[in-house]
From TrEMBL:
Species of the source: candidate division Kazan bacterium
Organism lineage string: Bacteria, Bacteria division Kazan-3B-28
The protein's name in its UniProt record: Polymer-forming cytoskeletal protein
InterPro entries: BacA/B
Similarity annotation: Belongs to the bactofilin family.
Region Disordered, annotated ranges: 109-143
Biased segments, Basic and acidic residues type: 130-143
Pfam families: Bactofilin
Top-rank lineage group of the source organism: Bacteria
Length: 143
């Protein structure tokens, strides 16, 4: 997770909703979003979303990675990783490529894992595998 100093860098359009702040609407950005207050609406980013321990979100979330230490009511779609920390609670359906739910984390809903086969590099078989394959093919031809 990012530090407050990293969020303050002007060359990266990151957004923080602070503790005690309440925001409603659609929040769409290319940078990271950290919510320590209350947000209601819709969150869309190509970056990461961090819901702080005191954060409360009543929204659908679409992001690259999502880290939840607070409460989320809504569906969460993480392109890569979704992590529900020990204090995190999600009431909604989730989808991601990788999922981590720490002990104490709560998910009330269903989860869908996206297949990563398309993104994995092709692996060439080893010499031993090729030799065993040839031997079994030769046995099949003899029968």
């Amino acid at each position: 997770m990012k530090t407050r100093g990293e969020f303050a860098e002007s060359d990266n359009p990151d957004t923080i909703i602070g503790y005690g702040v309440s925001v409603e609407g659609t929040l769409q950005t290319a940078g990271d979003i950290q919510i320590n207050g209350y947000f209601k609406g819709k969150l869309i980013t190509r970056g990461d979303v961090v819901i702080g321990e005191h954060g409360q979100v009543d929204a659908n979330i679409n992001a690259e990675n999502v880290y939840i230490a607070g409460e989320v009511t809504g569906n969460v779609n993480a392109i890569d990783k979704l992590e529900i920390l020990e204090t995190g609670k999600v009431d909604g359906n989730i989808s991601s490529t990788a999922l981590v739910i720490e002990s104490g984390g709560v998910l009330k809903g269903s989860s869908t894992m996206r297949d990563t086969e398309d993104t994995k590099p092709a692996v060439d078989p080893t010499y031993e595998v090729e030799e065993a394959k040839k031997a079994s093919e030769e046995e099949a031809v003899k029968v």
